[in-house]
Structures are given as structure tokens and as C-alpha cells.
Design a protein that fits this description.
By secondary structure, this protein is α/β, with parallel strands linked by helices. It has four domains: 95 residues, Gyrase A, domain 2 (2-Layer Sandwich); 161 residues, Rossmann fold, CATH 3.40.50; 79 residues, no CATH class; 121 residues, Isoleucyl-tRNA Synthetase, Domain 1, CATH 1.10.730.10. Helices cover 51% and strands 13% of the residues. The chain is globular, with a radius of gyration of 29 Å. 41% of the residues are buried. It binds one RNA strand through β11, β12, α17, α19 and α20.
Length: 562
Amino acid sequence: MSIFLVKGVVMSVMGYIKDILQKTLERLGVSFPEKTKIEPPREKRFGDVATNVAMLLASQLKDSPRNIAEKIRGLVLQNSPEYIEKIEIAGPGFLNFFIKHSFWQKGVLEVLNKKDDFGRSMTGGGKKVLIEYVSANPTGPLHVGHGRGAAVGDSLARLLRFCGYDVTTEYYINDAGRQIKLLGKSIYIRYRQLFGYRDEICEECYKGDYIVEIAKGIKEKYGDELLNKDEEAAIEFCSQYGKDLILDEIKRDLQLFGVEHKVWFSEKSLIETDAVKETFALLKQKGLIYEKDGAIWFLSTKFGDDKDRVLKKSNGDLTYFASDIAYHKNKLDRGFELLVDIWGADHHGYIPRMKAAIEALGRNKEDLQVILIQLVNLLREGKQISMSTRAGEFVTLKEVIEEVGSDAARFIFLSRKSDSHLDFDLELAKQKTMENPVYYVQYAHARICSVFSKAKQKGYELSLKPEEVISFLVHEQEIELMKKIMEFKEIVLTCARLLSPHFLTFYLMDLSGTFHQYYNNVPVLGAEDKRLMMGRCYLLLAIKYVIKNGLSLLGVSAPERM
RNA sequence: GCGCCAGUAGCUCAGUAGGAUAGAGCGUUGGACUACGAAUCCAAAGGUCGGGGGUUCAAAUCCUCCCUGGCGCACCA
């Protein structure tokens, strides 16, 4: 067994080369430069892996990069490493490694061996992560923007779990503030209107039709009971009733989208358990709180915020920020080491104070990562659909899912950096062409499945084991596919490190494209040699696993037939 | 006014802790089914990476100034 094979697991090429380089530099008596890059070069003629290490060592060794590269090459080749075909030195001093086919072929065996677990790792080391997402106020149905946040949060949870993190997902319910009161008021007014009262709906009230529906529901269930209560009690009742109803709806919508939060955390519970008071006490003890103009302030400028922030207003009310600090303290107290918050991009100004709070609680700023979700621009055939939340005119998440399906919606949501604007064309999302990439990827998967069912029909059998036929895979496009398959591991780790699922989305389109090209160009079942045919089948099987694993990390299905 | 994000092909966007001749899809033009699924593939055309300066052997990427767009700058949530 090669030293580069650990328990039958093939290291990534980059890992393999890094290992060799580190050992070589040790022999040269120099340390491995931090900025060393080991990556696949853009162009094929520069080999499979390139590194700039010789250039970085130039000043330290007081020699030209090319001479150093030459020295490194000599030392590496002395050991005649198993998977290195040749090493070239190019340009200003790049070392270009050409890897033997057998390396990539072993990769296919690894995929076939690990199946659904291919790409899974323990990189996260069981670190406890809390991902808080959606957390929309329970004052109205979820809209597309929430859907995007849901898709990102859910996919991140899947990715981080796959990378060995201990992930909990959570929805923070803002059930204590002014908005809930307003919801109750809105419902109450509609309720009275149902009895012929001419109450005007207030300016800042919620105006959607769903409010009227809720009011009707109350009337049906309780008749005119509320009219006999005093206004405050009636509004309180409406708040509770409406909130519960809307929350149920939100849960159902998320379920429809395949999103499930492990914990539903109530803001109200925080206040009821004195958590906010405790947080105040803690901050006071640390000397981070002061009084001014009759209000209580948090000294957030001490941690890099622009100005100090009010926690308790002069009228005695708590600010939202106050309960937010208590909430984040609660998260940390529950033992979470990394907090991931997913917010709408319009809240970006809120980040410095929240990070300040985390630091005030004795953690590092980095322990809180905020992911911003930019607006979704909903289009139909290229024309923008106008939306106005205030007027209650907006397209709900549910409507979108029902129209285009959960798979297409998710894939599109995850096809951009989360903090950049996203155009979502409803007609495009239903099209079954390359313009709608989810089909392109799913089609690749279905096509492979179709090859296998065809093989079965024809009575072909995989009578030989993969390791007996894998060496027949030497076609240029096969090598390319095998390399791409191995990239999956790196991509998954990148997504986790940068908390950005969109890299995986692009990777899957890329892999599918490479597969489609291959498929159009090279006969699989019609291969001239039975062993070659089986080798190709195994390759397809490996691709199938990777696509399926990748899609499942995005929360998208991989149908066998379409 | 201050801050955050963005500006890459006609359009929509990638570009993964600076790397070699900047990528993809759509659109345009022209081609491939008596074939394992044409929901696919092949080929061509298309760029001063918003602009100027700087750092570096090397900048779309880092620094700085300016221009344009979005969003934030409450004792709102």
C-alpha cells in the first residue's frame, strides 16, 4: 500500500502533491511557505496540478525561481512517486505535475466504494454550529425572499453536516414585539368590519387578504364574543390567534419546500425567563452599559461599532436589539461554538452591533457569521412582477413552489452568491432547457439511470469487478470526468468554509456538462470491448453517485426518470 | 454626508484566502437523431474585467481616489 493511501482512501490530488512538496522542502531545509498555491491550472498543457512554491522561495533561497523549481523536481523524482507521470517547469517558475491515469482510476473505485458517503468528511470535527434562518415575523405568509433564505440555510446545514459539523437549525419567532401587536390590531379591525363597524384600517396595519380570512375564521369560531371584550384584550387575543395560525402556515410552507427546523425558538420565552435581565446584569458587570437621557445604552463602540446602541428606551420599552443580545447569549450558553445567522441584506447595518455584542459576551467576532440574502427579483417572461408588502400584494413562496416545483426553485435560489441580486423568472423556471439548469443536471442523472435500465434490458451484466476493468478508462474525456469527480470533495469543503452553497451548484452544472459531452461522443453499452463497456458503466455509476450526493446537499431530488 | 455591497461578452452571471492566452449559459450564425433519452451535443463570432493611480516577478482579485447602481445609517422591527 502506498503511503498516500490511507485506509484505501485516495487523497485529493492537491493533498497528494502538497504532501510530496512538504517532504521535499523539509529535505531542502526550508519551511513550507504559507502562500503556497497548489491548484489545477487553467490550461491542460500545464498539467494536472501546478504550484508557485518555487517562486515564493526565491528570496529566501536567494536563487532564481526556475533553479529552485529544478532542484525540487530532482528531489521529488528521486523518490519515484507512484502517481507522478512527469514534472515540468514553466513560465516564471511554475512546477507543473502530470498525474498518472491510475490515480484518477482509483478515485472511481473510491466513489463506488463509498457511494452516498463519497465526499463526506470529519473536517468539522464535531464543532457545534447553530444555523438560524428564515425567522420571518409571524405576521404574514412567507414570500420568495424568505424562500431564498430557506434554501441557503437548509443547504448549508446539509453541507456542514456532511463535513462533520454538529449542526442544529433554528427558527427565531419574533412573537413579542410591536409587529405582533400590529397584527392583532389589523385582525381586530377587520373583525369589527365583519360586523358592520366602519373602523378604518390603520396606515401601518397589515393589509393582505389573509388578514380578512383570519378575521372571518375568528368570527366563525367565536361569533361576536370579541366585541364584548375591552379593546386591548381583544387585540391581544387576535395577536395570539393570528400568530399561531400564520406560524402553522409558515411551517407547512417550509415543509412543502423540504425545510425543517429542529428548534422553534420564541422571543417571548426569552423575556418570560428573565434572560434579558440576566444579559443586562452581565453587561453591567462588565461595565459595558450606561445611562444617558433616561435610556440604557450598550457601549458597542468599544467593539468597533459606529455608535453606542440603546437597549432600553426612556419610555421603559426594550429595543429589539436587547432581546437579540439575550437570544445570542442563549445560543452560546447552549454550547454552540459557531453561530450562523441568515438575514435579509437590508439588515446589513445591524451586523457590527451584533458582532460587538458577541465580543462583549466574551467570544470572537468570527464566532458569529452573518449571511446576507439579497432581494429576489421575480419575473415572468422577462417582465418584473411588482410586489408591495404594505399593500399586501406579493407572490408567496407557496405559490412559487406550486408553480415551478421545489427542485427548480431551490436550484435557482442556490445558483447565485447569496448576497447578490437574483432574477427569478417563473416561466424560465418551468422550461426544460439549458436555460433552466436544474433540468440539465437532473437530466444527466436520469440519462445514466436510463443507460443502466437499457443494459438490463439487453441482458448485459457487470460480471467483472470495478478494479478489474477500471484501467481501461483512458479516453481523454474519461480522464477529464474522473478528475472532475474527485473535485467534488474540494468543492464541498469550499462551500462549507465559505458558507456558500452556490459553488456546488456551479460544480454540478459543470460535471453534468462534461458528462453530456462524453455521452454524445463515446458509446458506453456499444463499446467495442466488454471490459471497456463495464469500465465505462462503472464510471457512469460513479458520476451518478456524485450528482446525487451533490443535489441532495442542495436539497434537490435526483429523479431516475423524467 | 457616512457606511456596506455590487459594476466582468448584447443579456444573466461564475471566477473557490494574487498566478500563465479572463470562463459558462442564454441570445446570434451554421451544423449533428436508422444512435445508450436531441430536456443533448459540435463549431463560429463576441471583452480596454466601470475609470485613474499604486503594491508585486505576477492584479478581475490587494491598497487608494473617482464614477454609476442597490441598500443601510432611529430611544423601528
